[in-house]
Amino acid sequence: MNPTAPAAELLRRNAGNPALAWRLLRHLLSSPAGALPPLRTIISLSRLLVVARMLPELHDLRRLILLPRHPPAAVRNALSALVTISASAGLLDHALAHFRSLRSQFPSHPPSTRLYNCLLKCSLRAHRTDLVEVLYRDMLLAGVPPETYTFNILISSLCDSDRIEEARLLFDNMPVKNCQPDEFSFGFLICRYCKAGLSHRAVELLDEMGRHGRSPNIVIYNTLISSFCKEGSTGEAEKLVERMRKDGLFPNVVTFNSRISALCKAGRVLEAYQIFRDMQEDKELGLPRPNQITFNLMLDGFCKGGMLEEARALVELMKVGGSLTNLQSYNIWLSGLVKCGRLLEAQQLLEEMVQQGIEPNSYSYNILIDGLCKEGMIYGARSVMSLMKNNGMSPDPVTYRSLLHWYCTRRNISGAIKILHEMTSSGCFPNSFTCNILLQSLWKEGRIMEAEKLLQEMNKKGYGLDIVTCNIVINGLCENGKLDKAIEIVNGMWQHGSAALGELGNAFLGLVDDRNEKKKCSPGLITYSILINHLCKAGSMLIRAFCKISDFDAAQAMFHGALTACGQKEVLYSLMCNEYFMYGKISEAKELLQIALEKEFSLEHFPCKNLIEELCKEDRIEDGHSLINTMIAKGYLFDPATFMPVIDALGKKGNKHEADKLSEKMMDMAAHHDGSMVSFSDRLHGDSENKRQKQKQEVSLGSDWHNLLHRDDGSGIAMKLLKRVQKGHGIKPQLQTVTSEKYGFPKWISCRPCSNMP
């Protein structure tokens, strides 16, 4: 009889009792004459111990296997089995322990490629990218040839670590190891390129697949299509769909969902709806039917686009078709109703959800509570919060955040503090986001001591003092005249992170602890924007003061200091130019205006017209003429009345030709002018329309030029003339420097129409 047969029989009989099976087999293995059972018995026992989580016993099994009386080949196979079973069960540390025993006991017999692959896969699943690299190096040192599957694991590991260039290098070197990339090799890289926003590089890789004799599958195509759709490149996505069809693959519901989602995000909801309708109705095309995700995407698109009636019709369709059955769909519809101000209907929907057996979650209640708070209906929000509690749902930080925000926006700090106390007493502890809302309000109200106390409490309770917290404090210090302290804290943040808030005073010395890495946060763009803004304001509190007492040297020094600290800011140049002009420093004002023109700043806050007029009064006609020509050459649109002083001065000097040329430019400017002052660079970058709309609100309605044309004292003749010119009647207005008091024109302009003027 085979001496190992009793072991197998014992295991078979006691498979339902792993503890007993282990004791019996351990007894057999420990006896002096005990032989190592067959490999299949070792495998079966190992699996029993792993399933029963008898991990110490698994360790003992390895010790018994390693007894010197057992044949080396059998030991090697048994240890390999222990490694494979442990790794497959996700017991990485145990698998590595067995593997180390295998490598140390049999250094001249390297493990198989399959065993390395098993460990690599287990390490990848455990997100142990460090082990992946160690195992691969050991594999190469042991002379074990990698397979394509090995490379796929390595590429996937590098991609998961955002080391995409290293992954690509490994991919390109696969042929060196006699391995060819397969669909998975390409798929891993294409997916990571898409996630990194490098869709065009992913397409280049797609093109390489054919050269390697590989065909892309539908997953690869859907990944690419989805990526282009998310980027808003729907044209590229459409090209891929066509290419997909040519490759014999038909778009599935995932493909169509990507297109619908992208169109909705781009605001092209009706185009998305057309695709949705085709999926529903056009069976001849063989399109996939919409699934639950499709309906939810379309409903979300309608709701976010403010298309409430279309969303309502879709909801009714979903009810009829049985698609309105999950919580996500109801929450999308609930959010849409709240967004459109249908709060009563939203409350009714909550009741309907319960009736339909769809239990609202905290997100459902928070949608409605937030909407009610934003509409100022705090009592309604409180009522929904009570309903939430009655239905067994505890308010969370998001719930209290909406209430807290309501009190803070109404500067009801005491009410906000009560909310914070109510929150903690109910066992819901505020997070840093919640505390930051209150902190900002305290600083705005100038309640500095309470703000500092809240900071202390946040730190004491372990809430993260993040960059938002730091920015709130820095802004609060600046607003309260403590700019130096704010700068000191910002400088300290580079070394201590948020612990630099300890610079606020003795009460905060406990915060200064740079050992806590979680509190490290460095100053960012917003941080420095806050400082620059207040430095500019401070430089403005000082420049104006120096100019007022005629200490222009000090004002200029402050101006250059502000430029050094804050950068080449338009606001600083316009401020200094206006101050110079106000106090009669015309040459200095002109120089600054010329610099502003070179830098293509907006000229809205510069005294262009008045400065040119003063230059002409001082008989500096060429300077005024030069400024106008520069403004035109730079592509600025400005008040046509700016031309008048120069035209008048040129006429007085007898330079009629130049006056006429400038008059034509003035008329052309009038035809395009809308009361704003926009630079060519603004129009070039497509920002002019928004800027003009904003500037129209900030400046008085109508320029001096338009006031001139529309005066009620008879000067409407100028408007008639302008219209005739614009219509192309061949009428060319000419300007003379004569007085025309009859029509109410200024002394420096009169119109001399042609003889056919009606």
TrEMBL record:
Q: Where is this region: Disordered?
A: 680-707
Q: Which UniProt keywords apply?
A: ATP-binding, Helicase, Hydrolase, Nucleotide-binding, Repeat
**Does Nucleotide-binding count among this protein's keywords?**
yes
Which PROSITE patterns does the annotation name? PPR
PPR repeat boundaries?
112-146, 147-181, 182-216, 217-251, 252-282, 291-325, 326-360, 361-395, 396-430, 431-465, 466-500
Stored InterPro entries: PPR_rpt, TPR-like_helical_dom_sf
Pfam families hit by this protein: PPR_1, PPR_2
Q: What does the record give under GO molecular function?
A: helicase activity; mRNA binding
The answer to whether UniProt assigns keyword Repeat to this entry is yes
Q: Where is the composition biased (Basic and acidic residues)?
A: 682-697
Name the PANTHER family for this protein.
ATPASE EXPRESSION PROTEIN 3 (PTHR47932), OS10G0484300 PROTEIN (PTHR47932:SF2)
What is the protein name stated in its UniProt record? Answer: DEAD-box ATP-dependent RNA helicase
Q: Which organism is it from?
A: Musa troglodytarum
Q: Could you read off the lineage of the organism from its UniProt record?
A: Eukaryota, Viridiplantae, Streptophyta, Embryophyta, Tracheophyta
